[in-house]
Amino acid sequence: MALNKTLRPGLIQMRVLDLDQTLDFYTNILGLNEVGRTEDGRVMLKGYDEFDHHSVTLRLADEAGLDYVAFKVDSPGTLESLKDATEAFGYPVDEVPANTNQPGFGKRYGFTICTGHRIELYADVEKAAQVPMTHNPHPWVEAPRGMRAQRFDHCLLYGPNIAEAERYFTEVLGMFAPEVCNTPEGNRFATWLTSGNKAHDIAFVEYEKPGKIHHLAFLLQDWNDIGNAADFIGRYSLKRDVGPTRHAITRGQTIYFWEPSGNRIETYCGGYTAYPDNPVRVWDVSEVGKGLFYYEGELIPSFLQVVT
Amino acid sequence: MNDYRITDGATGEAFLCHSDENLLAAMRRSGKGPIKTGCFGGGCGVCKVRILDGRYQAFKKMSKAHVSPEEEKQNIVLACCVRPLSNITLIKA
Ligand code: FES
Ligand SMILES: [Fe+2]
Questions:
Q1: For the domain bounded by A151-305, which CATH number is listed?
Q2: CATH second-level architecture of A6-122?
Q3: What is the ipTM of this complex?
Q4: What are the extents of the domains in chain A?
Q5: What is the CA(A249)–ligand 1 centre distance, in A?
Q6: Buried b (16+ CB within 10 A) or exposed e, A74-91
Q7: Exposure check for chain B: N or C terminus, fewer CB within 10 A?
């Protein structure tokens, strides 16, 4: 299938408590490349297999968590029409001019959705100085380091009223939900949303406190690389949460652990191919433990309680 | 390396914490004390405790979303960011 007008989550800005330690984790353990620093000292990073200027920004702050996640859309025309549709949906939109607080990025539109998260949209971004090869290409230019993360993949956000968030992402951004989880009363407990064939680009879990992030995830090649990532967790005594294991939801293979500032990171691979014309997979909340952790067959308590 | 005795003021349950270990890691290792899980990075706030008695050192920045400067003055800390300097009595905050 063709991708939708929304292409992917292309940029995420995270708050960190210790910039040096967290940056060391991102570059030497996770394996991202440092692209540069902004004038106010934030660090820009990208995966070795990403073309765009950068995909992750780290900001030193007094609290951990998410500043925003930004989606790349397919054209400036789409960007303008999505801005109008977002305002019509009821979210006031602000504009961040090109090449200001995210070097290399074109104009961005930002707004806060019902879950308390800031979402941004953009159509243009410069290519990075070092990009994957495109002419008789090798799989990589420089040997991948550490956990060998290829690119930013998705994030899971916690906040109130995710049913409305799902409506925004489907009705306005044109994404779809291949998989959902409902309470016995039939209310949404969780939703997984995608703009293309990935099982998810973003997911939400219903939670009373707004604006929380559960994890951000990076793509690994395969199950062997999940094992390699687990070796790094052991070698450098990172705090592991769950895995290596497999999700029944999305079918992805995974490990969860925390970076030094307490934000949860997932290294992820696999997952089914999502199509918008396939029926939606539906989980009962009573079965979500097995849905999340297929080998363990039950929920790990920290998974629902620990967020930043 | 010294071992200090950490007592849960709510239950009287006690466990040992190495002088180079954070309080949360000792709870996790011993299976005792009020908290068993968390991000271990000072970010999530799950390990918030009040130190009722004893000396300690915060060796890591704690998220201000979970411990305000006023709370810090009242000996409220994130257990994953604190090492003991003596025997300690604490309760979950
Ligand atoms: S365990 Fe998250 S702040 Fe201590
Ligand atoms: Fe995930």
A1: 3.10.180.10
A2: Roll (3.10)
A3: 0.93
A4: 6-122, 151-305
A5: 27
A6: eeeebbeebbebbeebeb
A7: N
